[in-house]
Every structure is written in C-alpha cells, then in structure tokens.
Design a protein that fits this description.
Blueprint: H1 10-31, H2 36-41, H3 43-52, E1 67-70, H4 76-86, H5 92-96, H6 126-144, E2 154-159, H7 160-164, H8 166-178, E3 183-189, E4 192-193, E5 196-197, H9 206-212, E6 216-221, H10 225-235, E7 242-247, H11 270-279, H12 290-296, H13 299-314, H14 317-328, E8 344-345, H15 347-361, E9 365-369, H16 373-376, E10 394-396, H17 401-413, E11 418-424, H18 432-441, E12 446-450, H19 468-473, E13 479-481, H20 486-499, E14 503-506, E15 512-513, H21 520-524, E16 528-531, E17 538-542, H22 547-559, E18 564-568, H23 572-576, H24 580-586, E19 590-594, E20 608-610, H25 621-627, H26 632-644
Parallel strand pairs: 1-2, 2-3, 3-7, 6-7, 9-10, 9-11, 11-12, 12-14, 13-14, 17-18, 17-19, 19-20
Antiparallel strand pairs: 4-5, 8-15, 16-18
Length: about 650
C-alpha cells in the first residue's frame, strides 16, 4: 500500500524540487544549449514520481521494473538529473557534459546509451505510443507468466506537443480499447509551445478526448506535491489507462521568464539564472544537498524489491524456465516450411507460412497487421487474439500504422519478445518516424511490407509503391529483404534473425515461381549469382519479382550469343557490406539493374537502371509490368542497347 505524503514531508521535498529544478537549468546553461523550461516546470512531478516508481538503479534491466518513458525529449535535462539522483550510473560529471560529444547525456534520450533510458524518444508523440507498447507488453507477459512475476506499471510524461501529434491519438485509442490499466500518463499541461501559447493552434478539450477513448482522467496542480501524490495513488487503483493532467508553469522559478515561450528552448542566461537562485536563497552550480541525495536515491529500495521478486521466481522452476526461454530468443529449432520447385507462390503467402513456423518455435514471437492480416498473411494460426483478458499473440492494431510501428519498438525493448508488424509497402510512409527510431536503437523488430510494386495492379498509383524501397534502403542500421521466391524467403528469415537488428521484408502480391533452393551463405552476402556465365559481357541484376524476367531475358540474350550473368540481390544493405573481390565476382561486364521502383541507390553498382520514372497506373499487374518495360523482351532490348554504349 502507498504511504501518502503529509505536510511534514513538504520542507524536504520542496528542497528536492528546487534542487532538481536548478540542476536541470545548470546543465542547459553549461551546455549553452537545451530546453530549461519544461525541466524546471516538472520538478515537483519528478520528485513525487520518484516515490512511486519501482526501479533498481543497480540493475536497470530487472524484468519487473516499472517502465518510465519521457515522451518529450526536450525534458532530457530533467531526466538525466533524476536518473543521477535516483542512483543510476550517471555521475555529476556526466550531467556537466550535457549535450557534449560522446557524453552519456546527449540532447535527446537514447536507448542503450544512457542507463535507465528505456527507449529512444524526442520526436513528439513517439514516447506516448511507446508507453502504450510497454503496457501492452506487460499484459502479454502476464498472460505467458503470471501476475506476480509481472505486476509493474508503465509511467509516461508527455506534453502539449505529444498530444497534438496524431500518433498519440492512435495509440491512446488502442490503449483505451484494450483497457491497459497498468498505464499512467502524466500530461505536463503548461499551455506553451515554441511559437507561444497553445491557444494559437490547440483548443480541444483534452479531458473529453481521453474520456471518449475509455481513459480515466484526473487533474491537479503539478506544483502541489501532496496533490500529485494523491493523484498517482488514485491512478494506480483505476481499471483503465489513466491520464493525469498536471497544470504547470513552464520555467517555474526563472525570474522574468516564468510562463513564457522564451524559456522553452534556450538557456536562461547567466544573469537570470543567478538572480533566480538568489531569490530562493540558493547559490553555486550543480549543488546537491546531502539530504536531497539521500531522499531521492532509490538504490536500497530497488534492490530490496528485486530481491523479493527473485526469491519468488527461483521458487517456481517452471516459471523461471519460461522466462529464460523468452529472454534467450532462440530460433535455432524452427521447422521452416518447404516448397515445391516450379510452383507459383506469392512471397507474402510463403512468408505467412514462415511466420507460423517461427511462432511455433518461440513463445515470444508475436505481431499483427494494421487491419490487413488476410492480405499480409500475418495471422498466427495456433495463437489467440491479443484482447483482454488473455492478451494472445495475434495483435490487431486497427488502421493505425504510425502507432503500430512505435508500439512494436516498445515490444522489442521490453526484453521478452521478438515482434513483427505489417501493412502494404505504400503505407510504410505512415511508419517512417518509428522505423527511423528503430534503426537508431538497433532493436529487433520485423516489418512486413506486402504489395511491393506496380504488381499491385488494379488499385492503381495510390497503392503502387515506387519510391518506398529506396527510402527503406537509405536507413542506416536497417536491413531490407526482398526475396525472389519462397525458398529465398526462408533464407532471408534465417539471415535476418541472426542479425539482431530491425529488418523489413518487402513481399509480392503476385505469384512468383519457386526455384531451386540456394545456400544460406549466398543470401548472407546480400547478393549472389543465380545464372552464371564463364565470361559475361553483361550482368542483369534484380530483386524480388524482377529476378524472373531477368532470367528469361538472359535466355533470350544467350540465344543471340550474348554472355549474360544474372544476380539476385535479396538484401541491398548486406551487399554494401561485402568486400571488393566479392562484388567484382558479381558485377561483370556492363551492369543493368532491373527494379520496378525508382532504384536511385543502384548507381553504386550499375551502369544503367531500368526502373520507374513515374507513378503506376490502374490495370492488372502483368499488364503493367509489360507497359512499364519489365518484360523479358524489353530487358533484353535494354541490355543490348547498353552493350552498344561506349565504356
């Protein structure tokens, strides 16, 4: 049971808040860069939050810890100050190096970089959706384990900017629908954005909005320590996700700048900072009174909480074994499906069989589509739906692609799961911010994108992706697989699982001929020869559905006495990592790349690219491939023309 704060606690906790407030301001001032206003305005909230969170700073990865997500990355100074005071491995010298090269305290929060940071945030709204993902992960974990081993909560601090971004609306809607009562969001309602007051562009009734989405909504003064404590206690007793609207003053304590947009994104200035401290009887920089350090440190409490939890886990051998299985993320015993050579199978269909095989092997493999499971082939046949009270492995995101991507980042970071999510390739744009953060974090998320080219057909140019493949390949630390057939699809999954990185699978709607299986090592290199010639004068290169017409074109050219080599490139990103000798073995003679997309990135290897120079059209897919020049005869014609060009 929570112990309520009393009037007797106030003097010490007010000192704690002032310390936290000006520690944050000192960090921004020392860096001459950053956002002091939000950090200063949330000081009381931060102090009270520390009394409620269940964390072990000595082991930031304890499974049953509360997840604390700071959605507004511009509050990073406050976050680092809190982590230091809570007892995480973040020194005072680290705080003084705020926003400096290679410091542990970068400008926005980065997962795997700073102890205690659960997920990379900063782009507004992402952290809110991440918090929903962590809360969902906890419910799924409870379903797999039990409610004593997993009983933590998820706390999120967000601001006006987060709630104006559409991703927060998408994810809040899903959280309310699923009844995620383990989620508590504290909304820093200071009514200020960069341009000025929120009344310039934002006047909705936030309380009514969240009520309509099946949330509990509480409201109070964010600077009133006793009231914030009472609200957090109430929030932990609700049966719905809870939004606490904390009314605050941005830049609290900054003389002459309180409540102003001027304090949002620039240091206070040495003079204002000094006068502000003097008005409160404070002096010096980076000062932490001993009583404050003792009051806010969570190490002793956290170690006791984890020790109690460990005792329970060790008393339950079956439970302990299941946790170990989930944390191992071992796919070595997967029984991959087999496919008949010569059969026509869309790679979206073969992928569906592979997903089910992965799910049968590993308890932590889970995912779903943005209302497209029948088209994406992502339904896990042996698994239940992810709905209360059971929270199975088939996730239903609804038509919420952006939230889907952000939620999957949190599922991956939770520590027990390997998630996937799916939609059409043309809608990958809706996930772009989450994809980018996934690449920054290097977490293991699989993105399934089907309907990968003009082969989509009759739906027309609005649904035919022509630039999206190039966009995905441009992401660093992100691997894009586009298999030419079912067998290559299996190999791509085997390689992708070994990378432990975010990966995308770009898959066809149309049926593709299943060819003979290829060695795993070939796909591990990103590209390999599928049709060799002892002395080729030209190399045809393709991925996915374009490999087949390249092979047909090679036969046409061979009949005319032209030496041709055909290369399949299931993963362009892996190909870029190969050494010069291997690349020279692939790209012999003139190089013609054939891709039903923009293909701008192929200039790295190609003499010429046969790609899309416009959007598609509405017609059957095979008609469009002929219309836009991806027939075997036109590929052969382009190859002959390339051979006639001077080197």
């Amino acid at each position: 049971m929570d112990t309520r704060l009393t009037e007797q606690d106030l003097p010490l906790l007010q000192t704690c808040a002032q310390t936290l407030r000006f520690l944050s301001a000192d960090m921004v001032q020392r860096a001459n860069s950053g956002h002091p206003g939000v950090a200063m305005g949330l000081a009381e909230v931060g102090v009270v939050l520390g009394r409620h969170v269940r964390l072990n700073p000595k082991n930031p990865h304890w499974l049953n810890r509360d997840r604390v997500v700071f959605s507004g990355g511009h509050a990073s100074a406050l976050v680092y100050a809190l982590l230091h005071l809570w007892g995480f491995d973040l020194s005072l010298e680290d705080l003084k190096a705020f926003r400096q090269l290679d410091s542990k305290t970068p400008g926005h929060l980065e997962f795997k970089h700073t102890p205690g940071i659960e997920i990379t945030t900063g782009p507004l709204g992402q952290g809110f959706a991440n918090a929903v993902g962590f809360a969902l992960a906890s419910k799924i974990a409870q379903n797999l384990l039990d409610t004593r081993s997993i009983n933590h909560r998820v706390y999120c601090l967000c601001g006006d900017g987060d709630l104006q971004e559409g991703v927060s609306y998408e994810s809040a809607s899903l959280a309310g629908h699923l009844g995620l009562d383990n989620l508590i969001v504290i909304y820093d309602s200071n009514a200020i954005t960069i341009e000025g007051g929120t009344n310039l562009a934002f006047s909705e009734d936030v309380r009514a909005r969240f009520k309509a989405q099946n949330w509990e909504v509480l409201e109070g003064d964010g600077h009133d320590l006793l009231e914030m404590d009472r609200l957090l206690i109430r929030a932990k007793a609700t049966t719905k996700p809870t939004l606490i609207i904390a009314k605050t003053t941005i830049g609290k304590g900054a003389l002459g700048l309180e409540g102003s947009a001027k304090v949002h994104g620039a240091p206070l200035g040495a003079e204002v900072l000094a006068r502000s401290k003097q008005a409160l009887g404070l002096s010096g920089e980076f000062v932490i009174p001993a009583q404050v350090a003792r009051a806010l440190n969570l190490q002793k409490k956290g170690q006791a909480l984890e020790s109690e939890w460990q005792s329970y886990i060790h008393s339950q051998p079956d439970l302990s074994a299941r946790i170990a299985h989930l944390q191992a993320k071992d796919f070595s015993k997967v029984q991959y499906p087999t496919f008949e050579v010569g059969k026509m199978i869309a790679t979206r269909a073969s992928n569906g069989a592979i997903l089910n095989a992965l799910s049968e092997s590993y308890l932590g493999f889970l995912g779903g589509s943005a209302d497209l499971a029948p088209s994406n082939n992502t339904h896990l046949k042996a698994q239940a739906d992810c709905l209360p009270p059971h929270f199975g492995h088939n996730l239903h995101f609804g038509i919420r692609e952006h939230a889907m991507g952000a939620i999957n980042n949190a599922l991956a970071n939770y520590g027990l799961f390997v998630p996937f999510c799916a939609t059409f390739l043309v809608f990958s744009d809706y996930l772009a911010p989450a994809l980018r953060l996934s690449a920054l974090m290097g977490n293991q998320v699989f993105y399934i994108f089907t309907h990968d080219s003009i082969g989509v057909g009759e739906d027309g140019p609005t649904h035919q992706p022509i630039e999206h493949l190039s966009h995905l390949r441009a992401l660093p630390n992100f691997y894009v697989f586009r298999p030419m057939d079912a067998h290559e699809n299996v190999r791509c999954w085997q390689v992708a699982l070994s990378l432990n990185k975010p990966c995308a699978f770009v898959l066809s709607r149309q049926n593709l001929q299943v060819r003979a299986n290829m060695p795993l090592e070939s796909v591990q290199r990103g590209g390999y020869v599928v049709c060799a010639h002892s002395n080729p004068s030209i190399t045809l290169v393709g991925s996915g559905s374009e490999v087949s017409p390249c092979l047909e074109a090679a036969q046409i050219l061979a009949n005319q006495g032209v030496g041709v080599q055909v290369v399949s490139v299931p993963c362009f990103d892996l190909l870029l990592e190969q050494d010069k000798t291997y690349l020279e073995s692939l790209f012999k003679g003139k190089v013609l790349v054939v891709e039903a997309g923009r293909g701008l990135e192929w200039g790295h290897f190609a003499h010429s690219v046969l790609g899309m120079e416009s959007f598609g059209k509405s017609a059957p897919g095979d008609v469009l491939f002929n219309h836009f020049g991806f027939s075997a005869h036109n590929i052969a014609k382009r190859a002959l023309a390339l051979l006639e060009e001077p080197c």
